[in-house]
Amino acid sequence: MIEILRPGLCDLVMDLGRPGRGALGVPAGGAADPAALAAANCLVGNDASAAGLEITLSGPRLQFPLGGVAALTGARFAASRSSGAPVAWNETLVLAAGEVLTLDRPEAGCRCWLALRGGLAVPQVMGSRSTFLPSGFGGHCGRPLQAGDILHCGTPAEDMRLLRASPPTGEADDCLRVVAGPQTGQFDDAGLAAFFGGAYRVAAASDRRGLRLTGALVSHYQAELSSQGVLPGAIQVPPDAQPIILGWDGPVTGGYPVIAGVIAADVPRLAQLKPGEAIRFVTIEVEAARALAALSWEIKELA
User: Fold this and answer.
1) Which of 62, 194, 199, 241 could be cross-linked to 216 through a Cys-Cys bond (beta carbons 3.0 to 4.6 Å apart)?
2) CA-to-CA distance for 38 and 36, rounded, in angstroms?
3) With 0-12 CB in 10 A as exposed, 13-18 as middle and 19+ as buried, what is 57?
4) Could you tell me whether strands 175-180 and 278-283 are parallel, antiparallel, or unpaired per DSSP bridges?
5) Are residues 231 and 96 part of one domain?
6) Residue 110 lies in a domain
7) Domain range enclosing 206
8) H helices of the chain, where?
């Protein structure tokens, strides 16, 4: 059980999402970095699919009236506990009855994930407990958490152990690795040179639906294009020639040409991009992208 004493900027109940609902116009959604949430769940003895909190840019102050077991993964936030004990990332945290956990701003990155032993016991909607903000359903009342909200936990899946997690290594610097999109041939030489040779910044008008970019214009042939299925990480170029990277709550179909797709291993990095950050794109072979997608978190017992 946790009580929200002070909400963060956007604290959302999330699990691994609701895949398979695209025919209804509902994206899979779920945690922006599902592997990070799954690792946090493992650290507290939950099933990987248990619901936790996704915290963005500014964190909440949470009280644990009965105590609890928690874990934090993702971007490290400035954090403190009322007991004075350290707040470790990627480790099992045992919280005393009445203890308050405060998360402020990230030291780097944008989002973190908080798992609680037993998982957050909110109702399932279409087979998932994830919040879907565009339609206002799922999670806790279909909205970000507010002061005074109380969330209860369910039953843990495994026995209690003290664990530490290590994320996969081998990430690029400010480059996002991409493979060619289905409409790459609709872009002229100038457009391709602009996209792959220039730098872009994440626009302020970015959210879980997509990251809007500002930078070099990506020109393309204005051929008529039928709607097609799209996934998070697809990079569309609308008529204003400024790319948009589709996000986790983005549309399931789109009518703009897709110049490239962010590889699966780098889609979680999208979750850590803040407005104003600079990014570049670099191509990678499909087989290499598949190998990177196979990398996973490592879980060990605490010494």
Assistant:
1) 194
2) 5
3) middle
4) parallel
5) no
6) yes
7) 175-297
8) 34-43, 189-197, 267-270, 286-293
